[in-house]
């Protein structure tokens, strides 16, 4: 039997591990941290008022059928191991002019939004089978009678408008423009620089919904570890791989940051220096708050928009500093009906501001910038309201997750090359070395890294059969 060594137990690596073991490979997974999940981690803190829990990475799930397919591949049922709840209002958007818009079924059925989604559906129907669901080397295998009917949408991929320009061609309301601009940040990019093809992102959220696992996002990697173990995968936690050549196996699969892998974990003679020639996706400035009061005006997921959105992205990507007037994301999982993530009468806030990918990042005193900005929305926090507070940013992402300079997604999608072609999933000089995860094909986020693990396992099965 062929041996596969996987460096990293992120969701992409877990997806690949379970599939490869099911196919008959001997699989070992090596993880630098004490738990699996990569950036899909959680934090638990006990205060005099009781216990708080936060999701510290992804905060919702779309395309849950990909998890169902993974469990089905292993002859199991997802619902026997993980309970998912659909979120009716996937996000509540706030502006300082008093406007509040809920992203729910009524929102998706607004006539201008419906028109936009009809346009974006064509992008998805053409790109999903040819790009998202298979290795770039196998794109041609997608061409069949069904795909030919969607070729009429090909000109949309030739549209060199930015996402922001496309949005303004569909919407007159500046609030709607800002909502749809915001989806570019799902892959760490600026809507004013990334291509309009990323209109596919809001379509996916509208079509497949927003879901939340009972017990928190960390229950997803927990379920995947157990699934992989039932297939025979062996896990080695607290085991950091710093040289991919040290992995003794027939096949090596790197589930770490692909830029870090090329710059640090491979011999200098084959290091991918060209990987540094592109904009990095943003990082995040994070604050965890345990609050001893409740805020009824906030939903599970909230966006409090900057009044100067373009300036915010110029701060991040041009001036490479924390935004002077940030858009603030707040997730409070304690608002979920079955949540036990905060004591009675309290709330847990995961607060995130998009930040430049630089490490170390000077952030002293930025908490006050965020608190001052919250007051502009009528959200006031007194010192006595805060039972727990901590913050972290790019430097910690670089340390905890080996993210290159703290970037959450590797390359930003600011050019045709980086929008359509992620770093390759197989090393050109090491044919037994493959890559999976959010910094390679097809991109970041739980659904795409699940697909990345599937694609990597398919490539390995094709190139190096298990027996």
From TrEMBL:
It comes from the Bacteria. SUPFAM superfamilies: FAD/NAD(P)-binding domain. InterPro entries: Amino_oxidase (IPR002937), Carotenoid/retinoid_OxRdtase (IPR014105), FAD/NAD-bd_sf (IPR036188). Transmembrane segments: none annotated. Pathway: Carotenoid biosynthesis. Keywords: Carotenoid biosynthesis, Oxidoreductase. Pfam families: Amino_oxidase. Residues 11-253 form the Amine oxidase domain. The keyword Plastid does not apply. NCBIfam families: crtI_fam (TIGR02734). Belongs to the carotenoid/retinoid oxidoreductase family. This is Phytoene desaturase. It comes from Prosthecochloris ethylica.
